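Our consortium's second objective concerns turning raw sequence data into structural hypotheses that experimental partners can test. To show how far this objective has progressed, the report includes one record in full. It was chosen at random from the queue rather than selected for favorable results. The single chain below, 646 residues long, was entered without modification.
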Amino acid sequence: MFHNNPLLFKLKKKLSSKTSRIEGIVKSTDKGFGFLEIDSNTSYFIPPTKMKKVMHGDRITALLKIENFREIADPEKLIEPFLTRFVGKIQINQSVVSIIPNYPFLKTGIVCIVSCNLPKHAKTGDWATAILVKHKLISGHHKFLAKLTEYIINKEDFLAPWLVTLAHYQLESQCHELNSSSITFDSSVLRKDLTHLNFITIDSITTRDIDDAVYVESYSQGVFDLIVAIADSTSYIPLSSSLDKYALERSYTNYLPGLTIPMLPLQLSEHKCSLELNRRRPVLACKIRIDKDGSILHNYTYFFLAWIKSKAKLVYEHVSDWLEHTGHWIPESRDTANQLCMLNDIFIIRNSWRKNYALLFQENPEYRFKLSNDFKVLSISLENRRIAHKIIEEVMITANICAAQKLSEKLGFGIYNVHLGFDSTNSEYIAKLLCEYGIVIDSKEIQTLEGFCKLKRFLNNNSYRYLNNRITKSQSFAEIQCIPGPHFSLGLKNYATWTSPIRKYSDMINHRLLKSIVTDTNATRPGIDVLLKINNRRKLLKMAERDIIDWLYIQFFSSEKYQNKIFKAEIVDVFKSGIKVKSLKYGANIFIPASFLHDFHRELFFNHEKGTVYINEKKIYCVSDIIKVKLINVRINTRSLIGKPI
């Protein structure tokens, strides 16, 4: 009866004529339509016909219109495309080549101009890199167009997960070859000859880039002199040389499941610099006096350059077996056995000191992938750190504390690992949350190092799993800076690593600075560009490792024997659309959609901030809860595991 109502028609026409311009990011859906997300609380519908002009992730401006009494966003102008350079699967249809980007919400092939050598054996499904050269929202372009820039690998090649991921993040996939004749050694500095001392190394059985050796002497009853000797890689790498720039570009040795890509050429990392058994090697060393209560007597600590010769190449598992009185391995000599016993004594007193006056690392389980020769996942094992790992970690932390102290005293700059705990907003949230559990703290106090340590010790001593989870979630990220700063997670006033110069460029920088103190020469303060490069590189490596691990989990759980498998899992996060859990046995993340938590979505409430899920206002799930989960779907395209609670 209202179909031809003139007043209704007039109102509809008036609303339709109103437009305004908005800006946001396009979010697509599986059903063809999308949304323009303005902020975390505001989004506008984009109809399927309009979505054809944009891609998921594009930042655009749009006209906000009223159509059929509904607000819609009509894409108008491209501000920043989601795709620039990208990796994807190629499609070959006769003479037409297109590419499907390697993103879950981008499922349509983009026609390509081929500007690289495409192998004759290339076929649909193989991997390549491309750049987007035309976008529909740019004036004069009526289609999306990409340029194929590099063929990566055959889709069936077992190295595809590694090479595709490394190509995506523009990371190197191979070692750098170096002509041995081009390597020169700086012999201009004087070094102490310590080759007669019984230095030992403890590493994994497969380690070849050995960068640290240790030696202990008993100074008096309960007091030790510890010498930490670190491979002097910078004696082969002049500052600002091509090799130095190459090392900065890589910044870190990239450790991936089944594959390691070294920062330095193998001729250096595994030979000339590596502290190999019975080989005379140049080192930067630090002699540290440790008192009977575990404290460092800094007045007696000093750095120096030396020559050493490792007398024993030991393995973590063997040393742990011997110290824990299991297995059959025994040290080859009494000297080596004596060194291990004193190192164990140092670990005990230093670990106790850090527990009382600083903080201990929260121990998280490590999951190891066992791969076949063709890089297939055979098994995934849960490994806890044993005593030998803890001894070496404690010794290196001690050496790094000494480096931070020396750099701060003598130079006032270096490469420091800085972690500032909570900002003001998060500290207020934590104080309010703890108050709900009857724990009264001052939000300003926990922004100080002393207050943060006090809080963490209290929670650790009382096993507050949920609160520890929320506090960790609210902490700021650690980063590197060139001026001294506190490391809240370690409970230290400052912290600077120098013990892995074969594997970390930041440690190479600190080596050079410490050597300048030893030799009384000028020191160069690292520039902001160097810090940015190292920080950015670290993020890329972490993301690459995460992506490859996700890929391997999908391969592992695709096996029929894991279909409908039931796991014990810990809830690790809560979202609007469901919860994420972590398998305790395998370490895999499994997503449980809201529809599997309760039949009626309107009765569900997800509190991401507190990590809780409510059904009809009753708390049902909470982060840190251990639940049983059945694996029901392995989504290969999105590399995600889907489960449901049991």
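The partners drew two points from this record. DSSP finds 13 helices and 30 strands in the chain. The mean pLDDT is 93. Both points have been shared with the crystallography group to help prioritize constructs.
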